[in-house]
Amino acid sequence: MTRSLKKGVYADERLLKKIAGKNPLNTPPVKTWKRAVVISPEMLGFTFGVYNGKVHVEVLVTEDMVGHRFGEFSPTKKFTKHGGKMQKELEMKKKEAEIAAAKGATAAAADAKAPKK
Predict the structure, then answer these.
(1) How far is it, in rounded angstroms, from Cα 96 to Cα 104?
(2) Do 12 and 69 fall into the same domain?
(3) In the list 10, 28, 51, 72, which could disulfide-bond 33, CB 3.0-4.6 Å?
């Protein structure tokens, strides 16, 4: 048996007290700084504000999350993106195409609103 099974799961008593006897639909997000707490079945339906070092990320607890830890659903690092110069060029072309399509749509809408002679 591994040591963690012998010790049992980590459930914060104060966090469980905050949600005890409350309706998940009417309760505002419960803020927590404890990312290591294991999600238990009593937490289903509640929204928790899990601190990621900068802000509280709102996490709605669902059935699939039971047994996982809060920290898994509140990433601490922001993924920017892969790619270098070539990727930037592709994104610029895509953005220009979107702008051209938007201008075309507004011009078509203006023509449709204009009175016909």
Answers:
(1) 12
(2) yes
(3) 51
> 59 and 74 in contact (C-beta within 8 Å)?
yes
Calpha distance 68→64 (Å, rounded): 9
Question: Could you give the CA distance from residue 76 to residue 117 in angstroms, rounded to a whole number?
Answer: 62
The pLDDT value given to residue 8: 78
Q: For residue 34, what pLDDT band results from cuts at 50, 70 and 90?
A: very high
DSSP H/E element including 59: strand 56-60
Residue 102 three-state SS:
helix
CA atoms within 13 A on the CB side of 69: 12
- Whether the CB-CB separation of 29 and 58 falls below 8 Å is answered with yes
59 shares a domain with 22:
yes
Q: Kindly state whether residues 69 and 31 are assigned to the same domain.
A: yes
Residue 117 structural domain: 80-117
Is residue 57 pLDDT above 90, yes or no?
yes
CA dist list (Å): 51 to 46, 77, 103, 106:
16, 12, 42, 43
Residue 115, CB-side half-sphere exposure with 13 Å CA sphere: 1
